[in-house]
Write a structure and sequence with these properties.
11 strands, about 325 residues, about 15% strand, single chain, alpha/beta
Length: about 325
C-alpha cells in the first residue's frame, strides 16, 4: 500500500471537521469570506484563495469577500474587497472566517448575521464564534490548513489563480519559509501550489516590489534605530510627524522591521508606529529563535513564536517592553 502523504495524514486527522465545511459550502448558495482587520499576506491570500476555489468549483453560488483593503497590496497584488450594504446580509448566508484570533479583530462585524459560521485559523484563541472551528496553532499559516482541507476534497480543482493567492499567504506568514513554524508539511503544501503552474518568480517580484520613496523610509530606519541596554533588541519608532514626512501610513510602519533579521547579536527586533485612530502605538515584534509571544501578551498583543504584535498606550511603556525582550536573552 502506498504511504500517505503528509497532507493526506493531516486531513485524515481532521476528516470530520473538513467534511462539515464542505457540507456547509454545498448547503448555502450565498457565502461570505471574512478575515482580520489591517490584513497581511495570510489574511488576504487565505480569504481570496478560498473564495476563488469556491467560485471555481461551485459557479452557481454567490461568493463575497469582506474587510478593509490593504494600503499597498490592493490593487497591486489583490483585488478590492466587496462593498455591499446591510441588505445583502438579511438573507441566509454562510460565513467563513480565516486567520482571525479574536472576534473583535474580524474586519466586518456583519459576519455575526450568518446562519452558519466556520473559523479556520492558526492563532491561539478562546473566542467561540463558530459552529465549526478548525484551529491549528502549529501551522505556519491559515493557508496551510485550508489547502490541506481543499486537497482532501476529491473531484475538485485547484486553479492557478487560487493557488497564487494561497502561495502569497504561505510565503508571507512563514517569512519566506524561515520561521520555526515552517515544517515538512509547509513545503508539501508549497509543492502542491507550485504544481498548478504558478509563476513563483513573478509572485515574489509582486510581493516585494519597492518604490524609490521606500528607500528614504529604509534610510530613516537605518539612521534612527536603537539598541536595547543589553544589545539584544533593535527597534525603531515612527511618530505621526515622521510618518507624514516619509509619506507612509501607520499600516506601513512595520515594513522595515526585518531589516535587522540577519545582524549578529540582535535576537529580537521591533517597529513601534504611532496610530492616531485609537490612539496608541502599534508594535510588531520578530525574533530569531526564542518565543516572543509571551512578551506580546504582556502588552495587549499576541501571535506566533517568532512573529507577534502588541500595543502600547504610551511611549512611556516602551522601556518596559524592551526590558522584557532583553530579559528573554
Amino acid at each position: 500500500m502506498k504511504e500517505k502523504t503528509l497532507i493526506e495524514k493531516y486531513a485524515l486527522e481532521r476528516k470530520s471537521d473538513f467534511r462539515k465545511v464542505l457540507s456547509a459550502i454545498k448547503r448555502y448558495n450565498r457565502i461570505a469570506v471574512f478575515r482580520h482587520i489591517m490584513p497581511d499576506y495570510d489574511a488576504l491570500g487565505s480569504q481570496l484563495g478560498l473564495a476563488t476555489w469556491i467560485k471555481d468549483n461551485f459557479p452557481d453560488k454567490e461568493v463575497r469577500t469582506f474587510g478593509d483593503n490593504h494600503v499597498t497590496f490592493t490593487p497591486r497584488i489583490y483585488p478590492e474587497m466587496d462593498s455591499l450594504g446591510d441588505s445583502w446580509f438579511k438573507e441566509p448566508f454562510l460565513a467563513i472566517i480565516v486567520d482571525v484570533s479574536a472576534k473583535k479583530r474580524i474586519a466586518d462585524p456583519r459576519y455575526a448575521k450568518a446562519k452558519f459560521k466556520v473559523v479556520i485559523d492558526h492563532h491561539p484563541s478562546e473566542d467561540k464564534v463558530a459552529n465549526v472551528c478548525i484551529r491549528d496553532t502549529s501551522a505556519s499559516a491559515a493557508t496551510e490548513i485550508i489547502v490541506a482541507m481543499l486537497s482532501s476534497f476529491k473531484g475538485y480543482t485547484l486553479s492557478k489563480e487560487a493557488a497564487r493567492y494561497f502561495y502569497t499567504a504561505l510565503v508571507g506568514d512563514s517569512g519566506r519559509f524561515q520561521y520555526s513554524s515552517t515544517t515538512a508539511l509547509t513545503f508539501e503544501i508549497a509543492q502542491k501550489l507550485i504544481s498548478t503552474g504558478i509563476n513563483i518568480s513573478k509572485i515574489y517580484q509582486e510581493m516585494y516590489l519597492k518604490q524609490i520613496d521606500d528607500l528614504y523610509v529604509t534610510a530613516y530606519v537605518l539612521n534612527n534605530f536603537h539598541l536595547s541596554p543589553k544589545g539584544c533588541v533593535a527597534y525603531y519608532t515612527l511618530d505621526l510627524t515622521t510618518q507624514e514626512r516619509l509619506k507612509i501610513t501607520t499600516e506601513r510602519g512595520k515594513e522595515n522591521v526585518n531589516i535587522f533579521a540577519n545582524i549578529e547579536g540582535i535576537n529580537a527586533w521591533c517597529s513601534i508606529t504611532e496610530d492616531k485612530k485609537e490612539p496608541c502605538w502599534r508594535v510588531s515584534i520578530r525574533s530569531k529563535e526564542k518565543d516572543i509571544s509571551g512578551v506580546a501578551n504582556m502588552f495587549e498583543g499576541g501571535g506566533h513564536a517568532q512573529a507577534s504584535g502588541a500595543k502600547l498606550n504610551s511611549l512611556d511603556d516602551l522601556p518596559k517592553l524592551i526590558e522584557a525582550l532583553d530579559n528573554l536573552f
